[in-house]
Amino acid sequence: MSSPSSSSISTLKPKRKTKKKHFVQQKVEVFRASDRVLSIFMWGVNHSMNDLSQVPIPVMLLPDDFKASTKIKVNNHFFNKENLPAQFKFKEYCPLVFRNLRERFGIEDQDYQVSLARSPPHKDEEGKCVGLLLTSYDRTLVVKEISSEEVEEMHNILSEYHQHIVTCHSSTLLPQFLSMYRVTVESEDTYLLVMRNVFSHRLPVHRKYDLKGSLLSREASYKEKVKELPTYKDADFLNNMQKIYVSDEEKEKMMEKLSRDLEFLVRMRIMDYSLLLGIHDVQRAEREEEEAEESSIEEEEEGEHDLAAAPSSTSPEGIAGYMKSFKAMGPGEFDPYVDVYATQSAAAAPRREVYFMGLIDVLTQYDTKKKAAHAAKAVKNGTGAEITTVHPEQYAKRFKEFITKIFA
């Protein structure tokens, strides 16, 4: 493969493109044409990680590192047209900062590179996101398309976010932000944010909730409920009489993390985030495993090629791969260094379960748009109504009160 025509390190300009992304149009087209974006993304990750491996690790990060970016522009090279277009651009934001964050989150760059670039990420069929929402082939990472406004918001909070991760020694429920990129093909920009998957690469989730701490319009639609794995909401959580059964010690640790993270979000004037909760039922998983073993050889062979049915990586490399060299995992077991959002149910719990809990969608600032929405909803529902668009302090207080009650 020919090398790119130009590669440079530059500083982000304060002035940003005003061009808005046409998400509605992309919703129809993105997966028909996503091979090009994904191919450039994988090529770019591979190229940028190889380049980064040659850059010495600095003693400390400097303010300029939080504004820096690397750009690669490729013009008229003889690529295989089926895989890569002749012209494209790839940009990585704040490479040294994100390398430092990956290190703090215990993710080796080589494993990160393998998890993203060895095989194409696959579409999250359950994703409610309008743009791309992908899971790496070994299911340890999530790749999410974000707007240019969210890129700007990430730049606004990145320095404080990094400091928060340092201060709390990476013990957080916040998303683990690992990198941010821009792919440009035919003058169309796609912004991609890579995070650690809240859910396990190995233990399937049997029930899933998106909790915001508000009951107003917070019930899953009928269309959502008939899905194989619906995303339920706050009202569903209460109606299902769902509870989280963890030890007092685990609950205390969880609430300490949450309190620290909420203080950070309030300080950053961030709101509208959710707690993503996934529940793995150990007994159900054991039954499903037994049924799979009893099924025909043909079905087993199909299952081996179906990443959704067999999510664990068969590769000895990648973020999840190294575990296989230690020991085989039993039912309901997980590696806390990989499944960092996982918690075992208490010994006295009515069911053996594993819970996955992490904060998501933390790039919405309480800006003019949200203030206007709050005013409109207050007029419609009354000032005392439980609306989701409230100022950050109120949002965090209500959110924390609700989350405290989800524990048995």
From TrEMBL:
Pfam families per the UniProt record, alphabetical: PIP5K (PF01504)
EC number: 2.7.1.149
GO biological process assignments: phosphatidylinositol phosphate biosynthetic process
Native species: Austrofundulus limnaeus
Name under which the protein is recorded: Phosphatidylinositol 5-phosphate 4-kinase type-2 gamma
Acidic residues: bias regions: 288-304
Gene Ontology MF terms in the entry: 1-phosphatidylinositol-4-phosphate 5-kinase activity; 1-phosphatidylinositol-5-phosphate 4-kinase activity; ATP binding
PANTHER family reported in the protein's UniProt record: PHOSPHATIDYLINOSITOL 5-PHOSPHATE 4-KINASE TYPE-2 GAMMA, PHOSPHATIDYLINOSITOL-4-PHOSPHATE 5-KINASE
GO CC entries: endoplasmic reticulum; plasma membrane
Domain PIPK: 33-407
Subcellular localization, as worded in the UniProt entry: Cytoplasm; Endoplasmic reticulum
Alphabetized InterPro entries for the sequence: PInositol-4-P-4/5-kinase_C_sf, PInositol-4-P-4/5-kinase_core, PInositol-4-P-5-kinase_N, PInositol-4/5-P-5/4-kinase
Taxon lineage: Eukaryota, Metazoa, Chordata, Craniata, Vertebrata
Catalytic activity from the UniProt record: 1,2-dihexadecanoyl-sn-glycero-3-phospho-(1D-myo-inositol-5-phosphate) + GTP = 1,2-dihexadecanoyl-sn-glycero-3-phospho-(1D-myo-inositol-4,5-bisphosphate) + GDP + H(+); 1,2-dihexadecanoyl-sn-glycero-3-phospho-(1D-myo-inositol-5-phosphate) + ATP = 1,2-dihexadecanoyl-sn-glycero-3-phospho-(1D-myo-inositol-4,5-bisphosphate) + ADP + H(+); a 1,2-diacyl-sn-glycero-3-phospho-(1D-myo-inositol-5-phosphate) + ATP = a 1,2-diacyl-sn-glycero-3-phospho-(1D-myo-inositol-4,5-bisphosphate) + ADP + H(+)
Record keywords, A-Z: ATP-binding, Cytoplasm, Endoplasmic reticulum, Kinase, Lipid metabolism, Nucleotide-binding, Transferase
Nucleotide-binding is among the record's keywords: yes
Ranges of Low complexity composition bias in the record: 1-10
